[in-house]
Amino acid sequence: MKKLALADYTIYLGPWEQAWPEFIQGRKYSQYFVLADENTAQYCLPRLAQSGFLPEYTLIQIPAGEQHKHIGTCTQIWQQMLDAGSDRKALLINLGGGVIGDMGGFCAGTYKRGIDFVQIPTTLLSQVDASIGGKLGIDFGQVKNSIGLFGNPQAVFVDTTFLQTLPAREVRSGFAEIIKHSLIADGAQWEAIKKVQDWRNLDWNGFIGPSLRIKQRVVEADPFERGLRKALNFGHTIGHAVEGHALETDSPLLHGEAIAIGMVCEAFLSRKKTGLSSNDLAEITRFFLHIYGTVALDRANYAEYLRLMGNDKKNEGSAINFALIGPPGEVHINQTAVAEEIIESLDYYREEAEMWEKLA
Amino acid sequence: MKKLALADYTIYLGPWEQAWPEFIQGRKYSQYFVLADENTAQYCLPRLAQSGFLPEYTLIQIPAGEQHKHIGTCTQIWQQMLDAGSDRKALLINLGGGVIGDMGGFCAGTYKRGIDFVQIPTTLLSQVDASIGGKLGIDFGQVKNSIGLFGNPQAVFVDTTFLQTLPAREVRSGFAEIIKHSLIADGAQWEAIKKVQDWRNLDWNGFIGPSLRIKQRVVEADPFERGLRKALNFGHTIGHAVEGHALETDSPLLHGEAIAIGMVCEAFLSRKKTGLSSNDLAEITRFFLHIYGTVALDRANYAEYLRLMGNDKKNEGSAINFALIGPPGEVHINQTAVAEEIIESLDYYREEAEMWEKLA
User: Fold this and answer.
1) In the annotation, is A217 catalytic?
2) What does the pLDDT look like over A185-208, one tens digit per residue?
3) Is residue B27 flagged as an active site residue?
4) Portion 292-311 of A in contact with B at CB < 8 A
5) What is the C-alpha separation between B188 and B191, in angstroms, rounded?
6) φ/ψ of residue A135, rounded to 5
7) Contact criterion met (CB < 8 Å) for B82 and A140
8) Coil/strand/helix, residue B295
9) What is d(CA B85, CA A288) in angstroms, rounded to the nearest whole number?
10) Contact criterion met (CB < 8 Å) for A85 and B110
11) Would an 8 Å CB–CB cutoff place A28 in contact with chain B?
């Protein structure tokens, strides 16, 4: 079992039943709560329960899906903890993907002004993205993660055997954050990643560790997202808008799928603004289209994308802020683009995707 | 103008229009929001606005009263900030009593994972109690302050001229926390306070400074309420229960009025458990009955008081936790009492109050 020691807590990389006894030794909680959705309650919780290591617990089960990541679900979680007579020495175990981790962490961080919680991320996305950074929260007023706080868990348990419970598309979604980490901070890893032909047969353990170390470096330098940490937004300004809009349609996109589109668009902006070479742009574009396929963007939605970007919490005032890249591995924060440039970048993706489809 | 420099921020004691220019110099916010209720919007906001120092602002007005300190009001506050396109560099100015400060601070602390806020407490209670400690939050599931977080403002402006806008009963309520601070940490101040005959003619400036310094000492030693800070709970375990119950009746009590009852009861427990002398108990009891008058406690409500104490967030597991006092100025945290003893202490208050009324 590998361990990644952060300033405040440890990420355990390996089988949960090896990590948990080490974590829990010497700790004393008054009660244990497991927060799960109907999927993780069915597919992941039995493994914890059958290990014989999980203490007696109260299950708080919520419906699966981003559409339930709202304040109404929080009130249900708080109420169940209150009804169980939970005091400030209880532990909340968040078992699930990003929604469970973000919302469960927010509920723990605000229940009686903060109780301990641990994360057991069960998706690749949450394993590489939510394990570090302390971003907790919920969606509000149609803006993703617009209510929340910064707070760290007591531990994170990254166990890739949980990935076997996932649809392949979910795993591919998480891969996008691993790719992003390489593009903003590790050119050598990008060289390795760009050779990947078949993402279905990858050994994820080999990718998660390096990816987490990149994120650790960035976050520890800027825990409250005042500067450097904005580097992690590469692909996210446009990606979030595309994701937010798709959520309202019959063809919602997974986070990584939207961010993949966002990274192609923002790589286009990076060629114009921050020195990404045409050759690198072409490689990045082809790679994402190969791994993620194409999504037909409709120009009729551009205005809505722009509106959603205007409400993005990463922006200051009216300027649209971007983290862009230079040569892969090099990032430039606090870049800006105007609406015309953003539209041009969306057109770039749209046309490249159309061409890709024709050649396929 | 006096200033009290805490680790993270400054409390300005004096006229707001002198303090604000010093605070705001060199700071740059993208937008200003003032959170007020209908009372402070009418009686306090004009003074800020007419000073000529307040920057252009958006008013967020909420209904006055503890009964509005809930998550529904938070969603209205968040929504108005979102509708105004507020980014993470906005400043929220909380103008009002404890409800405004606690809830506004919570909303600021969770809006886009935290924006800056300042407190302009307009009641004596919030000036001495909420200026230090970073406790932010709302009531939930009939439990006071059960959802919240710890977070500090950028500054607090304590201006006693706002007290002139208050009913006398509100001012007297705040006095209870000043008395509490002396009883737990400053025997000499208690000696001075206990001579007070007419609280209506006190110079509050002379009491607020010392009271804040006591609270500063306690809070800085224990910012997250893991130990010493429980000292501030003296009078609050029973007081909160009495307050919570009264809130549901036709005769709600102000916080300080309930805490005054709580301090008499817990002084009774202190005599039994932590060495408070009979003479001191008698002095404390007489003083509170003189200042606050009497409230007729009904034995029929005791069970409900006990239930409310069982849900009090300061308790761990099923034991009922108290902060009690020795000789005035000396505090003992982590004391416990069983239901019979608590009932005995409630009877003590009830009988002393009855006797006081007969003698009056």
Assistant:
1) no
2) 999 999 999 999 999 888 898 899
3) no
4) 310-311
5) 5
6) -85, 115
7) yes
8) coil
9) 33
10) no
11) no
Tens of pLDDT, residues A218-256:
888 888 888 888 999 999 999 999 998 998 899 999 999
pTM as predicted: 0.87
Task: From chain A, pick out residues whose CB is under 8 angstroms from the CB of B114.
Answer: 149-150, 224
| Residue A214: C-alpha distances to residues A122, A132, B95 (Å) | 20, 10, 43
Q: For chain B, give percent helix, strand, coil, nearest 5.
A: 55, 20, 30
Nearest Cα to B67, choosing from B171, B124, B163, B144? B144
ipTM of the complex model:
0.85
Residue count (chain A): 360
B204-229 per-position pLDDT tens digit: 988 999 999 999 998 888 888 888 88
Strand A2-5 versus strand A10-13 pairing type: antiparallel
In our burial notation (b when 16+ CB lie closer than 10 A, e otherwise), range B9-34 reads bbbbbbebbebbeebbeeeebebbbb
Residue A249 CB coordination number (10 Å): 10
CB contact, 8 Å: A140 with chain B? yes
**Domains (ranges, CATH) in chain A?**
2-165 (3.40.50.1970), 168-359 (1.20.1090.10)
Note the pLDDT tens digit of each residue in A258-297: 999 999 999 999 999 999 999 999 999 999 999 999 999 9
Of the candidates A75, A147, A224, which has its C-beta nearest B78's C-beta? A147
Annotated catalytic residue, options A47, A69, A135, A172? A135
Q: Would you say B305 and B265 are in contact if contact means Cβ atoms under 8 Å apart?
A: no
The partner residues of B248 in beta bridges, in order of sequence, read: none
B234 in Cβ contact with B324 (< 8 Å): yes
Minimal Cα–Cα distance from B91 to chain A, Å?
13
Active site annotation includes B314: no
State how far the Cα of A255 lies from the Cα of A68, in Å rounded to an integer: 15
Q: Enumerate the β-bridge partners of residue B58.
A: B33
